[in-house]
Amino acid sequence: MQNDLFSMRGKICVITGGSRGLGKAMARAFLHAGAKTIYVTARKSEECEQTAEELSKLEEGGECVALPGDMSSGEEIVRFAKSLAERESHIDILVNNAGTGWNGSVEEFPEIGWDKVMDLNVKTPFFLTQQLLPLLKANATPEDRAAVINI
């Protein structure tokens, strides 16, 4: 029995880094909680498509759609937002889950590693949220707000 407190009934959600790991688990959980449509994005198209196909077959009945893209690129963020706006008039939930790390000691940590980590983990969520604000605001009300979850 679904608990209405955690219901996602009818919601349209976007999850970056949604093709595997925590992102995939969240997509599955959102569908289980009644989400109407989950858009998953990731750099690897094939993995993204496989996840969408797998999750769309779940008994919960919601749809999972792959929109592959490299969220570390400003141009890709803009392209992704436009593509999403062509499909939906609004979104209810954005999960900024895509992220990266750099394996190395603090003594040897290179600037290129710092830039890569900070760009994807900090800069990307800000600019993706900025690009998706019109869709997040489109259907939001004080009683039923849109949400941004940063992982």
Structure description:
The chain is α/β, with parallel strands linked by helices. The chain has a single domain, classed as Rossmann fold (3-Layer(aba) Sandwich). It is 44% helix and 15% strand. Helix 3 (74-87) runs parallel beside helix 4. The model has no long low-confidence stretch (mean pLDDT 93).
Outline:
By secondary structure, this protein is α/β, with parallel strands linked by helices. The chain has four helices and five strands, in the order βαβαβαβαβ.
Q: How large a portion of the residues is in β-strands, by DSSP E?
A: 5-15%
The fourth-level CATH homologous superfamily is: NAD(P)-binding Rossmann-like Domain
Q: Regarding CATH, which class?
A: Alpha Beta
The CATH architecture assignment turns out to be: 3-Layer(aba) Sandwich
- Tell me the total number of β-strands: 5
Radius of gyration: 16 Å
Class from secondary-structure proportions: alpha/beta
Largest beta-sheet details: 5 strands, parallel
Termini separation comes to 28 Å
The geometry reads as globular
**CATH overall fold name:** Rossmann fold
